[in-house]
Amino acid sequence: MFSSLFPLVALVFLGYLAIRKGGVSQSTIAELSKVTFSWLFPLFLFINIAEADLSGLLSYSVFLAFYGAVLFTFLMTCWLSPSLLKTHKESGAVFALGSTYSNTIIVGLPILISVLSPSVTAQVFLIISFHSAMLFAATSIFASVGSNNTFDFKSFLVGLLKNPLLIGIYSGLIINFMGIAFAEFISNTLHLITKPALTLALFILGANLYQYRLSGSYGHIISASVIKLLLLPLITLLLAHGVFRLNSDIVMILVVLTACPTGVNAYIVACQQNQGQSVVAGSVVMSTLLSALTIPAWLLLLEYGVFL
Fold first, then answer.
1. Confidence band, pLDDT 50/70/90 cuts, at residue 85
2. What is the dihedral of CA 99, 104, 110, 114, to 10 degrees?
3. Using an 8 Å Cβ cutoff, are 243 and 308 in contact?
4. pTM of the predicted structure, to 2 decimals
5. What letter does residue 128 receive in the DSSP assignment?
6. Rounded to an integer, what distance in angstroms lies between the CA atom of residue 46 and that of residue 51?
7. CATH number of the domain at 2-303, please?
8. Which of 199, 187, 250, 203 is CA-nearest to residue 46?
9. Within 10 Å of residue 86's Cβ, how many Cβ atoms?
């Protein structure tokens, strides 16, 4: 397990060190992020899911376990945080997003590929296909209710349709379901182009950790990180194993995906809502740093069957 996770942690640390020591400028990281997340990563998602064998891959119980845990934790956090954590009612939805939105693609996918096998890629893509859409919609709706504003469904839908990562996932699914096969030279070209996607994504993640400093209410940041790294994966484990009796590999996939740190996109949504930016940014940093300890701990617990 150490040999699988060490390269991933090393890449993140290298990205942080590069920006911390001035070896790479923030403007360079910004341009590299545009190329990686607007082109390389969407193409990576597209070609891999378009060519994956999805026949009989997942059952409805897998989706119920994953999305049931995420939605339950989101709603409970949104409802209880104003009274228990003294958050503003208007920012409760954003706090809940920072406590439940997982960095599934940049962190979860490389870990699962390393621990299990590259064949897990198709399963991960299917499971997370509605992850961003569901949580972003829930955040926008509850934030609008809390602030007495009207939820702009049209703007939300346009934003989703313009998201390059979602375009890559859904277009890949369409091609797969239509049974379209690419010529070998096209497939080989796309695989070659997208080969650096995961490596660059981890490097950029490390560089961004320097940008998103810990600031704001440390109590709220710690609370969001605990919910994200411990409570959410625990609820997922209880549903996946205790309720739906899924096999051990699927349980591991679901737990790792929900045990991932808070995704940077949660900060973008917080900025759009103009609420809780410092807490979400702090949660991104703290949960990412702590996940270097908590994710291996979850993997060890699952490997030795402590909960199974």
1. confident
2. 80
3. no
4. 0.86
5. T
6. 9
7. 1.20.1530.20
8. 187
9. 10
